[in-house]
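Much of the work behind modern protein science is quiet bookkeeping, done one molecule at a time. The protein below has been through that process, and both of its lines are reproduced in full.
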Amino acid sequence: MFQSFPYMYLYSYSGYITITQVTFFVFSLDFVCELLANKLYLLLLKIFTFAVPFITRDTVAGDTPASFATSLMLVNDPFPIFLLFISICRAQDNNILFQNYNVSNGLSQNTVIRSLEDSNGVMWFCTRDGLNRFDGTEFEVFRADGQPHSLSSSDVTTIIEESPGVLWIGTHSGLNRYDVSSNTFTQYFHDPANQYTISDNCIKHLLCDNQKRIWVGSMKGLNLYNKETDDFIPISTNGSVFWLMQNSQNEICYLINNTLCIMNPVTYVTERFQFGDEHKIYFLYEDNDKRLWVGMWDSGLKWFDRKNRKLVDANLTMENGKNFNNSQVNYIVETLEGNLMLATREGVLIYDRQANRLINYYQREQSCGLSENTIISLYRDKANNIWIGTYGGGVNLYTPYSNFFIPHKPEYKLQKS
């Protein structure tokens, strides 16, 4: 996949270059940037884009990050290093952090509700008009066509991987199991006459737990897929289940009617934590320290104190006084630096959970490359890239080391304070 992103590939692994090598690059920047101040830059940039896949072809497959950096530095011909300088200068000039993909690049629709990287490194995007498969070069779009082995609806809400080559896709009209090898969808619908069908056709969220069991949250309840009988066990029919996750204690956590439910996945015994109307819960995320964070509908970010059965406020205030404590937090991921990235309707926020304060935020108006301020999904892939789904602005890609050589502008880094 990375051969299709020459800039991203070099940026990502530049983090493994030694301090001596970095110093060499920095002292060389002024000369190179001055050299490229004319139109020759565009020609060299085109050569760079064409040349990198061939320069790195012996190291892309199977090398460790350290060995890739070493092999790049040991190239006899200085041309690849010179080209790396070009790319670095370009990043310094415009401070672009995010690369955008939208309908002009082949995405089927610009509202990206969920993202997933499968076992083969392929990205999948759920949109309001189709399921998108992205191999790093081009998009393939799956839409409903009315046939029994196609997608049940083009309005796609959620996606998970059960095993390599088997995906489950939720839509606003039915559940689908996709077999990659045969390129066929198996459709599942609610049948009022059969209690062992999904509770409702509007699928809100899916979960594949650590036992490879499929949990289905819909507008009217929670179901567990029975693989032996190819049907669904009703677990809860008390309302709309709009988020599912498994915590570090292997419990199934889900949100239903402003209630946090924590269930034993074997006995189905469920502990319920009801919150008042002033606490409209929206999203769940457990960090590496096993703390459960709760994104709120209109009151920012909180964490769940299970012992005292309460939600504790997180401080979403910048040092300059800018306040996001009343924001809607739609999604949370942990960054490579150990901070929390928050998706809101006011852009992307970076929260330092150790210091309990907001250390950065990114909005479209900052010219950082973010295509839209209304962020509705986040996904961290295996290479620690973060895919940012927006409402109407496509998907934005953040690569951790894309700003590695911008030490003079720390406001453009997702760093700890």
